[in-house]
Amino acid sequence: MTRKNIWSLLIMVLLGVGISWYSLRDVKLSSLMADIVTLNWWWLLVALGCIALYFGLEAVVVRKFVRHRYRKYSFLSALRVPLAEQLFNGITPFSSGGQPAQIFVMAQSGIDAGRASSVALMKFVVFQAMVVLNFLFAMLIGFHYLAAKLSYLSLYVFFGFLIHFAVIVGLLLVMYWYNFTKKAVKVVLIPVGWFMKAERFAQLEANISIKIDSFYEESLRMTKDWRMLLEVCIVTFFQLLFYYLIPYFIMRAMGYHGINIIMVTSLNVLIFLVTSLFPIPGGAGGAEFGFTALFAKFIPSHSKLILAMLIWRILTYYLGLFLGMFAMAMRPQKAEEIPIVTPEESVDEVE
């Protein structure tokens, strides 16, 4: 990690401490301690298991994308990818650092940089597709509650959906309408050139063109293997499901029974979309506000609501930051590229 990244991490931790302190300003320490003592730690372990499965299943996805071209790529090496992604998503605005971090970590393990970029992009496409799919289910189940009880959040949810949907449409255009997309990107970039030096703009245009070409070539290869793509979609769906279930198990740890698991899970999907709108790294402030606003009905005790929110943020945000630090410090294990044998080489070997 660079000095700039370390400072970003420290700032986010301090910001988290400040938000936590502000949230606890109206909570009596005696009430908070009583709530902590009465926690059901078994349910908290289940919640912890959910976030572990979230990271672990993403590592499974990475291995599925890599296994056709590399051998001896261990699960531990693959696990470094989502953890590094969590770290750099959490310390950069709009989670912009996650993609480069994944590519860097895979390159450390011996994966070609171009191949690593393609894997990160395809993983991103599948992830976004499953986010949109989950959102559609959540809309059917939980949006009426959101519109009736918290109408002011409905607009944020709608904009969050539009952002994720626009990303999916853009990526699908690259996959299935390549020539049009290349021309459209050039047109869209014209106003950007008005505010940049010609040399820097040309470099930006070239980099974007390379990324589009790389993604297009990789998408052609990936879409030919429908079985693998289907497996990755299923794994990613369950990866997100375990993440969305975390608030339910936290509520069970608080001693609340008879909670509608489908409604709680659906509302957490909506929080995910609201959080994505905030440019502050990790959606700091927005995530805490969304959680307390949406789950206040299910957790009527204010002290328990704040405690539940803090536990949720520790599991879904801060844990990823600290595990990501350890992942970046780990010595990478080198994978071996599987040589591609051409038909001509096969004939020569037979002769």
Describe this structure in words.
InterPro entries: L-PG_synthase/AglD. The chain has 351 residues and is mainly α. It has one domain (38-336). The protein has helices at 3-23, 29-37, 41-66, 75-91, 98-108, 113-149, 151-176, 178-193, 198-224, 226-253, 261-275, 286-295, 302-329, 343-350; strands at residues 70-71, 336-337. It has a two-stranded antiparallel sheet with strand order 1-2. The longest helix is centred in the middle third of the chain and has 37 residues, at 113-149.
Draw up the topology in text.
Blueprint: H1 3-23, H2 29-37, H3 41-66, E1 70-71, H4 75-91, H5 98-108, H6 113-149, H7 151-176, H8 178-193, H9 198-224, H10 226-253, H11 261-275, H12 286-295, H13 302-329, E2 336-337, H14 343-350
Antiparallel strand pairs: 1-2
Q: What's the arrangement of strands in the largest beta sheet?
A: 1-2
Largest sheet: 2 strands, antiparallel
**First-last Cα distance:** 52 Å
Instruction: Quickly count the domains.
Output: 1
Helix content: over 70%
How many strands? Answer: 2
- As a percent range, the share of strand residues is under 5%
**What Rg, in angstroms, do the CA atoms define?**
22 Å
The protein's oligomeric status is single chain
Number of helices: 14
Helix/strand-derived class?
Answer: mainly alpha
**What is the global morphology?**
globular
Average of the residue pLDDT scores: 81
SSE pattern: HHHEHHHHHHHHHHEH
Taking pLDDT < 50 over at least 5 consecutive residues as the criterion, the unreliable ranges are none
